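Good morning C.,

I know you're traveling, so I'll keep this short. The sequence:
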Amino acid sequence: MKTSAGRFFEDYRVGDTIVHAIPRTVGSGERALYHALYPARHALYSADSFAQGCGLPASPLDDLIVFHTVFGKSVPDISLNAVANLGYAEARFHRPVWPGDTLASRSTVIGVKQNSNGKTGVVWVHTEGHNQHGDLVLDFKRWVMLRKRDLDAPAPDTVVPELSDAVASGALHVPHGLDFSRYDTLAAGSPHRWSDYEVGEKIDHVDGVTIEEAEHMLATRLWQNTAKVHFDATNREDGRRLIYGGHVISMARTLSFNGLANAQMMVAINAGAHANPCFAGDTVRAWSEVLDKADTDAAGVGALRLRLVATKGDSGAFPLRDEAGKYRPDVLLDLDYWAVMPK
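The tokens, ready to paste straight into the viewer:
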């Protein structure tokens, strides 16, 4: 056999480290495609001159380009046979990625749990992305529900990893040299700085984008994500292609520009859940809640902890959970992250 059907739930053992194939050199082409797929307008990722005014040598690649690329490398080994990617935790962006950098990734299995139906199970992994110099650029934990190949395979001993509720503000990596003391709010598109936001404040980002089959498949191919549920309509009983969760994350993050234009860099993802599936034809809207604020050691730079919620309903109603504490059916994404903003 020269082809591979991919790994199934029973193929994972806690402690296994998997080096993912196909390193990827990323450049201005990825940036142009990303900005074509999403309404991405954050100035730090749009103009070298703006980034240089903030102490960086040039404009780095968008943080979520890095996330999707590192994530995509892991898919053939981790989630090719996934029912769904369930969530993220403890993600940290360690250093910027520049056009011309080459990214590679590896994952370590940190947890396994067979589901009660005996047909599927959940696998937790810790994935790391490195550049061509071996420098760590991103790491994150995620968990995915996988099918079993052999329904008679014995259930493994359950190991559920303990995950932090949030990345501590003192553990955030602010890029070396980043300096917002001469920040140009006019060029950035908003006068609202770190001090203008209050914990508990909610922001309706107003705009919406209807998801199309063609654009989500283009995006998923761009990150070399091969998960069958995104492409093969026969892979689900309902005959529908599931929108890649990262597509929803990027759409919601870029929609958040309207209200958070100065939240320039995503430096950590504390937690994330794909609350309900997204399909072509759904219109994605977004709202944010300020969860926390923190100082950093960088000149003029503050950190804002934000909850970003993507919905396919009315974002202005700030929907999240029902009276029983379950996600409402119109909630697609609940993402908790840290971003840096000028003080």
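Safe travels,
E.
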